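Thought: the user wants the 3D structure for the chain below. I'll pass the sequence to the structure tool as-is, report back what it returns, then summarize two notable features.
Action: structure_tool
Action Input:
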Amino acid sequence: MVAALRVPLIFALLLKWLLCWDIAKAAEPGQTPSVPVVVATARAAEETPRMFATGSIVSRADARLAAEVAAPILWIAEPGAEVAKGDAVARLDASRIALSVRDNEAAVRRLEANTTLLRTQRDRLRTLAAQNIASRNQIDEAESRLAMAEQELEQARVARDRARLELARSTVRAPFAGQVAERLRAAGEFVAVGDPLVRLVDTRSVEAVARAPLASAASLARGQDVRVLDDVHEVRSRIRSVVPVGDERSRLLEVRVALLPEAWPIGAAVRVELPNGPARRAVTVPRDAIVLRQGEAYVFRIGAGDKAERISVQPGPGRTDRVEVAGDLAAGDRIVVRGAERLQPGQRVTIQRGDSEVLAERKGPASRTS
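Observation:
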């Protein structure tokens, strides 16, 4: 029985000795344990200098619809009402205009009857002249009276058509589909020609309007990719147009960027990232690779023997998840993106599997994916 108890005791003492030996070995000077890290590759890219310009969201169709005739307002659309192209947004009292239309139509009918009579008389005199019964002077006088009557009839028709046009314009209609953003007058008010009635805004066709320095005009062109963002979210789009006319005071020109209607409400303040110079070659690294401590920026590069090298860098502009950096880095360098907070210069690292970018670099260019 004593022999049976000695075997487990000896095994326990041996296991304890091995554990103590491992701990002592790990504690020896210069034997820093390796740190597991995830790495990515520094890339050479063609970067374009960028700048941020303040802007706002506007509608491509925003109009203040005015009265085209002088009359009291009978009805006007409520703010927020959605209207289609051609729908009424205001109706004016057209009673006086309707009377003018009737008066002009009566004048046209009277002059049409007079013209018909004068034409008949002229034709009769021509027949009599062929029989040497009527003189040439009588025919000339009849033709002159007919010509003046025809001119009077044309003037009466113009006056009638003008009255009909005013009658039609007593109903103010939407020139485009949109939403009534503001009602500038109320029912019962008398308005003169040109007085604004409602503000109509097309909320389905919006864009961002930004103002950039005149010095950047050569770097801006229609179709360029840009970012529009605020403190909450961002949208990628393209420049729709550049207005190459600068303001004399601000020295700024206008840039318009097409947007989807659901991006921002009209009137929202945004920032627009615009090109600001010719493209240049630069080295980029993932944002997560840059360590910022005590006012210094640096990255860890994996050197020979899988040892970490601390490289000071100066971050530049960045787009998406990569940032341009200036420092002692080259395209193809392996850069730590996870685990850098535990690293010390010269420390050995263990690269975690699953980093497809680094694995592709090791296998060769043929295995890379775009």
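Final Answer: Structure generated. The domain at 50-61+204-275 is CATH 2.40.30.170 (Elongation Factor Tu (Ef-tu); domain 3). The helical segments are 2-26, 95-130, 136-169, 356-363.
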